Automatic annotation (TrEMBL):
Residues 1-21 form the signal peptide. It comes from Paracoccus methylovorus. Keywords: Cell outer membrane, Membrane, Signal. InterPro entries: MipA. It is found in: Cell outer membrane. Pfam families: MipA (PF06629). This is MipA/OmpV family protein. Belongs to the MipA/OmpV family.
Length: 245
């Protein structure tokens, strides 16, 4: 996928520059929030019903008050629940999809209260595609304990990914009666979000996120999609981890 490949090339170029090395402050350490929660999101991509799944929390803490502008690098993790066609009337005749994990990296560039970012991950299990996001967030510190973010992003996936979740093969078409659909890769969803972090104990915080997504292009045109609107709500607890070098 050309956009994700361009992101990886940009990261490799940035890593070779002295300015980037200074902004990372590798001599001082690394700080991030890590935790786990629950996410209520569509039962499957394109569904109009919500279901619960794990929410893996991994956020750079370098955007806190008093931290310098610059680049931060973190792992990027995600999870996609299994899709059993027999559980949904609208998916009768479709193949089942196993649970999928995704692992990769995320680059964030902070400029004042605005942070732009890009993430790229490789799937394993239910899908073996390449996925990622490009987006930006604006940070607002309501109190010493409460921080809010608003954001917008594009979700990207290559053809292996979009074909797995939005495609209909000839065999599935015969079994389900749905038309064959072979979606292209690229931007498959646009999202806007509001997030909150409330530090109720030192280095321990309650995290929340409310997101509205809209399926795009070939993915949104899939005969499997019941609605293009894809809302989700997530809540969890995260612990701040600090590493010194």
């Amino acid at each position: 996928m050309t956009r994700i490949a361009a992101l990886a090339l940009l990261a490799a170029t940035a890593l070779s520059s002295p300015a980037m090395a200074q902004s990372l402050e590798l001599g001082r350490g690394l700080s991030f929030d890590a935790g786990l929660g629950v996410k209520y999101s569509p039962e499957f991509m394109g569904s109009d019903n919500l279901d619960a799944s794990p929410w893996f929390i991994l956020r750079s803490a370098n955007a806190d008050r008093g931290k310098p502008d610059g680049l931060s690098i973190l792992p990027s993790l995600d999870y996609v629940g299994k899709r059993d066609a027999s559980d949904y009337d609208d998916l009768r005749g479709m193949d089942d999809i196993d649970r999928a994990g995704e692992i990769g990296m995320k680059l964030s560039w902070r400029m004042g209260e605005l942070t732009s970012y890009g993430a790229i991950r490789k799937g394993f299990g239910g899908h073996h595609g390449v996925v990622g996001e490009l987006g930006a967030k604006y940070r607002f510190e309501a109190t010493d304990k409460l921080t809010l973010w608003t954001g917008a992003e594009l979700g990207l996936g290559n053809q292996d990914f979009t074909g797995t979740y939005f495609g209909v093969t000839s065999g599935e078409s015969t079994a389900s009666g749905k038309p064959v659909h072979d979606p292209d890769g690229g931007a498959y969803i646009a999202r806007i979000s509001v997030e909150a972090r409330y530090e109720f104990m030192p280095d321990t915080a309650l995290m929340g996120r409310l997101t509205y997504g809209r399926l795009l292009g070939d993915s949104g045109d899939s005969p499997l999609v019941e609605t293009r609107s894809q809302p989700s709500i997530s809540i969890g607890v995260a612990r701040r981890l600090n590493f010194r070098f």
